[in-house]
Amino acid sequence: MEVASLVLPVFAIIVTGWLAGELGYLSRALADALVHFAYNVAMPALLIVTIAQEPARNLLEWRFLLAFGGGSLICFVLVFLAVRAGGKRDLASSTIHGMAAAMTNTGFVALPILHAIYGQPAVLPAAVATVFVAAVMFPITVILLEWDARGPAHSAGLAKQILLNPMVLSTLVGLVWAITGLPIPPPVVVYLNMIAAALTPCALFAIGLGLSVDGLRSSLKASFALAAVKLVVMPLIVYGLCVVLSLAPLYTVAAVVCAAVPTAKTVYVLAHEHKVEERLVAATVSITTMLSVATLLIALYLLSGSASGGR
Questions:
Q1: Partners of 309 in the beta sheet?
Q2: Per-residue pLDDT for 23 more than 80?
């Protein structure tokens, strides 16, 4: 019930956006403005406030990072190479395919689920997973997308473009702040959190608003394949790494849950901003959000007895 109560509202916002566009209540063109706001304002605020407030030492839970981060990167590479091997997709398209199967919605789904079921001890690993997605997965995506857009011949301009990208720049600001150990002034935290809070409704509503039935149908087969990797293959890989690394029971549960939640809505923000595979990502986010209600319940049931050992 905890899982359904957290995941179903997410899906409901997507459906609301779709209905608004389908019924002509709002113009589908408004999706662009919502995504631009999410990409350039709300997401940077979230990255800074999330990373900067996490003590640097907490970001070095190396076995958890290897399990969750390793599983994320393995899934990305497998899908990326599979798509590239097909020979019909460019670098940007292959990157978005890979991230749709590997970039996970830890902050808005996994963290509250783990906190609701296991309490405060489960928050730290979920926070570390969120920082990994922000500090590693986002920059990798931006670098590959910018590389595809500008090419190696413009390496100097490419480096500047990557460093000035809102995602990368805000990640670097957050990491530097975390390393200094300085607290963020409370008014600044409130300010950043207020802006960051707009990310979820803006991004999810934009996904629905820009989603057409024809577009969904055209991407259905590929989206279900990516959803299978995201919701089944990735959690299994992460669990295997947890076993190999002898990760503590609670951290094992946290790593698997973080891997088993839907595709991050910010993959759609990236895809839309770079005009790459938008329909595919919108469909994948929608499908993984819907199906994760069942897969998360199964994962939690199978792992329920193992978390009693704590860290």
A1: none
A2: yes
